[in-house]
């Protein structure tokens, strides 16, 4: 069996066949056994693979040739065991490093990935990546559980829909900006020399992964233009730049095929000059099985073999137990599903990365001396503060409400995020946390006065049937909630945090810990909501009589409460547990103190009021859970309105990880600042921006919509047809892509062409220094195909002193203007006029010019040649599906009357005969109509099939085509052809041959 993988050996050096190497090794081992000697570490040190002066390919082949078959197979699991006889240590893929090293202990926590991208500063992002790489190296000295130099970052998935639960992990809705940031962060992680890696970054999650709902069973339909122009354009730059060493396959399906076995994995190798180490997401191989969610292969051997042939090298499965994977690979080899060459190729990819990491070099190579002293070093703390400040986006600033002046001495900092910093799932453990109130207090110092509070209600819950209050435990460990109090004592008091969508958290006043479910009861023992299932979520459901039911709203749907009920009620001893709604306790809610009243009292008469609102990143959107809406929590909205009424000098800080539909708040407050959860230095960075020490030059990397109604369905991945993202959205956004204000102003000069791009002179016309993010967009005025309204081509963040001017050069090449031509499956630059625009956002264009391009004219379609069904120009009611389990994309009708359109077809003297490759299973309507002009246009002919029995069994069908009534004598040239498919019919390809 010859595989595409087998042609991917790079780097020079002659490679022996696996079988020849095995024979040579067997002879060597036999000689060793006969002599009664063993290979020790000193002997291993003399092996050629230990010699850094040799070419990489020779070193890899030398080590590979010394490994037994079982040892080679053992490399294909996430946990690669040591080979003591060769002095080879254990290796593990997978350290989380999205915005700092995670899960290994205290480490510098930088802003979330979305925040890093909001800086629009690739050099800064590269420096952050380098710091994270240093810290990961620092951990290697102690090797805590989970340590590894293969880091799973950055996340390159495009932020197509802001309701995605993992929005904070990505960079942007734009592929160019995403690619630039991923390249910068990855370059920092690698150290900038792909031959000598500081760490080995893996891009997540390949491909089309932007929803969490049913993420392992939903299919992302990526028509060729969306695949080529949008999805792949984000992944290609970091791979081609050597800023990543592989990709992780995503859980979802792509065009009906699980991404774990997508041939696109192997095609991604074409973008890199080096072999890639591709791996699966955790547990994904098991999803492939008929016993799993995707039901794609009958056995693990079949599934793992298919993944390996598709381009996977390493299997993340069964935690630290490689047994199921290695057994499956061995079985696949025995059954002929894999060859020795397949095993060799995957092992070679893995070892190539390990060599480049310096594992087999003296002292661990270039970066082997980095130790734990780099972790949370002063330089990294300063970098975290700068990154947090540069990432903040000033959305609104009327009447120069910001920056706060030197005359500002008394400030009230209120809101549910004023006195805390929350961490997301992939965050590291911060060594310290500077909250917004602490940062502002530090900025003002002894000369200022800072007051405030979290502005949340403190309540007590009393069972109307028993008259007893719900109480919590004291001490760090708390105790299960129970009905025991006869008064609203300290043990019976809870702070209520509203996070929107009806979800709240309860923090016990008795010990300052959050209440959560432990599988039996509800102890108050958590510092913050956390965990995979986030069991600290509740709802207070008001009843018609004014009482409340306390409902558990945690994520763990697999737990026993699913059958017991989701409401809280007391057992015989008063301990609260889960029960059904009809047996739930009815509570009165006594508001002991109003958070809004406290906030109003705190802000009255102050020089400024800073309201910090936003999200808890584990609630209402996170991994495995998409966002139910994008609104600010109702209680937080009401808080802002009350504070604004009490103090006209109100500044609102929105701290969350996604665009927010802010309603009237955006127009009612004088100043609005947005930040992601920005890490350990959030408070200091916020103070730097609010008081003008740092000019806010963060810019939005996503469109902020006014309403969810502006968005198509979450599972609709066709940004072109669905008018999604700034490229195609025709509505009026709340804030456009690229938006962000400064404390100064800028003037743009004319945009002029220079070799390699365009130049514009930008002048700071204000009275203070500031940063501007100059953005270059293009628009193609006329095209055969639907084109974006604007497309980002280049950008530059520049610093300017008052009155100074800089000439900013922005790169633009002819090839940048190419789009995917579905008629010929190739990139094409069309001739015509292009608008070239420079501005401060996608909606704030300051200077423009025209570019005349002498390019191609896409000719009429030649349907006489086989045309892939997926290469349509328009469609309705069809899905993209897998032509076979191994490769190919077909079109399937989801309902009767579904159609595809192939525009501008050259029918010559008229259509004569139609033929197609189709599949049709039980229940399928086996008709395929050929119509002219539109789905309801003149019927030229109908092809039929009685069925094929399997969705992967195709048959050829054909039909003679008759000319429509009134056809012109000269034939039907340059007309649209529409194919109307019967329900369930699969169409792979077709031809329309001209008459005569």
TrEMBL record:
Limits of the CBM6 domain: 865-993
Any one Gene Ontology molecular-function term assigned to this protein's record: xylan 1,4-beta-xylosidase activity
UniProt entry keywords in alphabetical sequence: Hydrolase, Signal
Family listed: Belongs to the glycosyl hydrolase 3 family.
SMART domains: CBD_IV, Fn3_like
Protein name: Exo-alpha-(1->6)-L-arabinopyranosidase
Organism of provenance: Streptomyces sulfonofaciens
One Pfam family cited in the UniProt record for this chain: Fn3-like
Extent of the signal sequence: none
PROSITE patterns referenced in this protein's UniProt entry, alphabetically: CBM6
Biological processes annotated in GO: arabinan catabolic process; xylan catabolic process
UniProt cross-references to PANTHER family, sorted A to Z: BETA-D-XYLOSIDASE 5-RELATED, SUGAR HYDROLASE-RELATED
Described function: Catalyzes the hydrolysis of a non-reducing terminal alpha-L-arabinopyranosidic linkage in ginsenoside Rb2 (alpha-L-arabinopyranosyl-(1->6)-alpha-D-glucopyranosyl) to release alpha-D-glucopyranosyl (Rd). It is not able to hydrolyze alpha-L-arabinofuranosyl-(1->6)-alpha-D-glucopyranosyl (Rc).
InterPro entries: BXL, CBM6, Cellulose-bd_IV, Fn3-like, Galactose-bd-like_sf, GH, Glyco_hydro_3_C, Glyco_hydro_3_C_sf
Lineage: Bacteria, Bacillati, Actinomycetota, Actinomycetes, Kitasatosporales
């Amino acid at each position: 069996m010859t595989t595409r993988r087998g042609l991917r050996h790079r780097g020079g050096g002659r490679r022996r066949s696996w079988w020849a190497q095995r024979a040579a090794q067997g002879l060597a081992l036999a000689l060793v056994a006969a002599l009664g000697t063993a290979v020790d570490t000193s002997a291993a040190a003399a092996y050629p693979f230990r010699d850094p002066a040799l070419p990489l390919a020779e070193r890899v082949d030398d080590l590979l040739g010394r490994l037994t078959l079982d040892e080679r197979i053992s490399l294909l699991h996430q946990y690669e065991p040591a080979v003591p006889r060769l002095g080879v240590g254990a290796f593990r893929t997978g350290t989380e490093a999205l915005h700092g090293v995670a899960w290994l202990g205290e480490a510098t926590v930088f802003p979330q990935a979305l925040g890093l991208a909001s800086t629009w500063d690739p050099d800064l992002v590269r420096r952050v990546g380098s710091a994270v790489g240093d810290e990961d190296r620092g951990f290697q000295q102690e090797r805590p559980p989970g340590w590894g130099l293969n880091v799973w970052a950055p996340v390159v998935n495009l932020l197509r829909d802001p309701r995605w639960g993992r929005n904070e992990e990505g960079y942007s809705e734009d592929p160019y900006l995403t690619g630039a940031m991923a390249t910068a962060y990855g370059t920092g992680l690698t150290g900038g020399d792909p031959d000598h890696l500081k760490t080995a970054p893996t891009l997540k999650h390949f491909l089309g992964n932007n929803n969490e709902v049913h993420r392992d069973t939903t299919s992302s339909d990526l028509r060729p233009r969306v695949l080529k122009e949008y999805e792949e354009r984000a992944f290609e730059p970091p791979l081609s730049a050597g800023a990543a060493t592989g990709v992780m396959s995503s859980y979802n399906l792509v065009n009906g095929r699980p991404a774990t076995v997508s041939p696109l994995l192997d095609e991604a190798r074409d973008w890199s000059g080096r072999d890639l180490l591709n791996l699966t997401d955790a547990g994904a191989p098991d999803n492939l099985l008929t016993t799993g969610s995707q039901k794609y292969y009958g056995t693990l051997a079949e599934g793992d073999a298919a993944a390996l042939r598709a381009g996977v090298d390493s299997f993340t499965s069964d935690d630290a137990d490689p047994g199921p994977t290695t057994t499956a690979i061995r079985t696949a080899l025995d059954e002929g599903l894999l060859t020795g060459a397949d095993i060799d190729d995957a092992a070679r990819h893995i070892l190539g990365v390990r060599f480049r990491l310096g594992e087999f070099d003296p002292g661990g190579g270039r970066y082997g001396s980095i130790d734990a002293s780099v972790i949370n070093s002063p330089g990294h703390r300063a970098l975290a503060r700068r990154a947090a400040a540069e990432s903040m986006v000033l959305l609104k600033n009327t009447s120069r409400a910001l920056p706060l002046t030197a005359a500002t001495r008394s400030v009230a900092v209120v809101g549910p995020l004023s006195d805390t910093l929350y961490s997301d799932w992939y965050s590291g453990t911060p060594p310290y946390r500077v909250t917004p109130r602490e940062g502002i207090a530090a900025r003002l110092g002894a000369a200022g006065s800072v007051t405030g509070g979290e502005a949340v209600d403190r309540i007590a819950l009393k069972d109307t049937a028993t008259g007893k209050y719900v109480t919590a435990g004291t001490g760090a460990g708390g105790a299960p909630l129970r009905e025991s109090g006869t008064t609203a004592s300290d043990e019976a008091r809870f702070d209520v945090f509203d996070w929107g969508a009806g979800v709240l958290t309860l923090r016990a006043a008795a010990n300052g810990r959050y209440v959560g479910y432990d599988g039996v009861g509800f102890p108050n023992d958590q510092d913050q909501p956390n965990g995979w299932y986030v069991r600290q979520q509740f709802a207070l459901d008001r009843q018609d009589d004014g009482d409340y039911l306390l409902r558990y709203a945690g994520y763990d749907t697999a737990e026993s409460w699913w059958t017991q009920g989701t409401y809280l009620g007391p057992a015989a001893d008063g301990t609260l547990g889960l029960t059904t709604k009809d047996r739930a306790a009815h509570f009165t809610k006594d508001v002991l103190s109003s958070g809004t009243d406290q906030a109003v009292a705190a802000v009255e008469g102050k020089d400024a009021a800073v309201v910090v609102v936003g999200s808890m990143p584990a609630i209402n959107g996170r991994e495995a859970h998409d966002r139910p809406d994008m609104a600010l929590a109702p209680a937080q909205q009401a808080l802002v309105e009350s504070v604004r009424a009490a103090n006209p000098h109100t500044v609102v800080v929105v701290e969350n990880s996604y665009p927010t539909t802010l309603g009237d708040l955006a127009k009612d407050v004088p100043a609005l600042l947005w930040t992601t959860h920005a890490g350990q230095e959030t408070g200091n960075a916020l103070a730097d921006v609010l008081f003008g020490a740092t000019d806010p030059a963060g810019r939005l990397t996503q469109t902020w919509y006014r309403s969810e109604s502006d968005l198509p369905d979450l599972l609709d991945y066709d940004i072109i047809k669905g008018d999604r993202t700034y490229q195609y959205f025709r509505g009026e956004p709340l804030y456009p892509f690229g938006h962000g204000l400064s404390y100064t102003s800028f003037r743009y000069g004319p945009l002029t062409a220079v070799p390699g791009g365009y130049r514009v002179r930008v002048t700071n016309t204000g009275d203070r220094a500031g940063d501007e993010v100059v953005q270059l967009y293009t628009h193609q005025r006329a095209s055969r195909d639907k084109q974006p309204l604007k497309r980002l081509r280049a950008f530059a963040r520049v610093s300017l002193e008052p009155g100074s001017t800089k000439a900013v050069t922005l790169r633009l090449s002819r090839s940048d203007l190419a789009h995917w031509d579905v008629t010929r499956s190739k990139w094409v630059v069309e001739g015509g006029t292009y608008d070239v625009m420079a501005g401060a956002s996608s909606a704030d264009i300051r200077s423009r010019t025209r570019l005349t391009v002498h390019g191609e004219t896409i000719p009429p379609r030649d349907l006489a040649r086989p045309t892939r069904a997926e290469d349509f120009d328009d469609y309705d009611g069809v899905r993209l599906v897998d032509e076979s389990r191994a490769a190919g994309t077909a079109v399937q009708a989801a309902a009767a009357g579904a159609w595809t359109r192939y525009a501008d077809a050259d029918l010559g003297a008229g259509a004569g005969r139609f033929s197609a490759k189709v599949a049709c299973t039980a229940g399928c309507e086996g008709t395929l109509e050929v119509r002219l002009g539109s789905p309801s246009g003149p019927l030229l002919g109908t092809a039929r099939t009685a069925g094929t029995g399997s969705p992967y069994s195709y048959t050829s069908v054909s039909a003679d085509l008759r000319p429509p009534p009134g056809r012109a004598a000269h034939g039907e040239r340059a007309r649209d052809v529409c194919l109307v498919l019967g329900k369930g019919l699969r169409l792979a390809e077709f031809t329309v041959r001209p008459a005569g």
